[in-house]
Amino acid sequence: MRVDRAELTETLEDAGLSPYQADAYVTVLELGAAPVTRIADASGVPDPRIYDVLRDLESAGYIETYEQESLYARANSLDEITEDLRTRATRFTAATEEIERRWNEPSVEQSTVSIVTRFETVIKNADEFIREAETQVNVSLGVEHFERLRPALRAATERGVRVNLSIHTPDGDTEALPDAADLVDVCSEARHRRLPSPFVVIVDRTKTCFAPHAGSTNEYGVLVDDRTHTYVFHWYFLTTQWDTWEPIYTARSDDPPIDYIDIRYCVRDVAPLLRDGATVRVRIDGIDTESGADRVVEGVLSDVVVTGDDAVDAETVASYGGRVGLIVETEDGPVEVGGWGAMVEAVEAHRITVVDVE
Fold first, then answer.
1. Residue 92 above 50 pLDDT?
2. Contact 344, 276 (CB under 8 A)
3. 208 alpha carbon, distance to own chain's centre
4. Which of 174, 283, 345, 357 has the fewest CB atoms within 10 Å distance of its CB?
5. How confident is the model at residue 267 (pLDDT cuts 50, 70, 90)?
6. Measured between alpha carbons, how far is 30 from 22 in angstroms, rounded to an integer?
């Protein structure tokens, strides 16, 4: 494919030559060896500038000058020049591909998963994450690690963070469990898992610390700072470390106001009330799924939304694995509320408070 003079000159400018340098170089290519005065006449370079322009081209390796009755100029070997241009073209192509890759893939800062080799690193990060918690903390640990995290758990509970604590003991030994009095100020609810279990800490739906239980063949840990990956650990915690085990302590009252962090537990409890004709008033603290701004919704529940299972009487939260939502009647009309990762609903709930039941 042939390229006209103007386009060739413009391309050389893109490659780093000045307009005068590009014009002079193309002229030298067209004339071959020629006196400098003729190059000036055939190009658009002013006579007073031609010597400086050619000197710069010679320094860059594009041309060479020599004396023959007067000063002449001719193009240097093309190998070096064409190789430079090909290298630049390759870099532009690589840059284009990298731009496309970064456009299509999330940055490392937005999605971070780290593998570590020491449990000490895992528990240290867990302590830091818990101290920064704003809404909820789910913890599964052995009694040997409870004392290590007690100060951080106490501080989170004092800030009003919902702390769910699952404790496992060797061979299901209940004698090794902390007394209820020791649990009052460190969690909202505690349950005893009577099987060996991994160490798991999940904070504010975004951060996870995980390590296999002590009997595991390989010693390693996983640190996660990402909503999508943390959602997987969240379900693991609910279905294996929490939902099937009996409470050994709870600060929750059966009388309103009752707080829920997970919408599925709320739906499980309020669905029977709605069927019985009760009036259930709620307050939803969350975010608007369209704008991402904080949003508070207050009103009366008119219905629950459950897909994937026609029954909403199951006790285990795993039975509510499909889409789950609430319909709240407000002064401005009905608002549909979803849980973690809500997309089709108007609001993603971070805290649901059953204010009153009549």
1. yes
2. no
3. 13
4. 174
5. confident
6. 12
Q: What is the pLDDT of residue 151?
A: 96
Collect all residues with Cβ–Cβ distance below 8 Å to 125 and sequence separation of at least 6.
209, 223
Q: Is the pLDDT of residue 314 over 60?
A: no
pLDDT tens track for 48-78: 899 999 999 888 888 898 888 889 989 887 8
Residue 128 confidence class, pLDDT cut points 50, 70, 90: very high
Sign of CA dihedral 61, 67, 73, 78: negative
Give DSSP secondary structure letters for 298-345.
Answer: EEEEEEEEE-S-S----SSGGGG-S-EEEEEEETTEEEEEE-TT--SS
The token pair at 356 is 């009153």
pTM over 0.70: no
pLDDT at 247: 92
Q: How far apart are CA 124 and CA 223, in angstroms?
A: 11
On whether the CB atoms of residues 203 and 177 are closer than 8 A, the answer is: no
Q: What pLDDT sits at residue 337?
A: 92
Instruction: Determine if the peptide bond prior to 257 is cis (ω within 30°).
Output: yes
Burial track 41-71 (b if 16+ CB lie within 10 A, e otherwise)? ebbebeeeebeebbebbeebebbbeeeeeee
Give CA–CA dist 81/76, Å, rounded.
8
Q: Hunting for tokens 């100060």 — which residue is that?
A: 151
Residue 57 CA, chain-centre distance (Å), reads 50
Q: Which amino acid is at 276?
A: D
The answer on pLDDT for 334 being more than 90 is yes
Q: Are 263 and 328 in contact (CB under 8 A)?
A: no
pLDDT at residue 125 above 60?
yes
C-alpha span between 187 and 189 (Å, rounded): 5
Handedness of CA 158, 164, 170, 171 (dihedral sign): positive
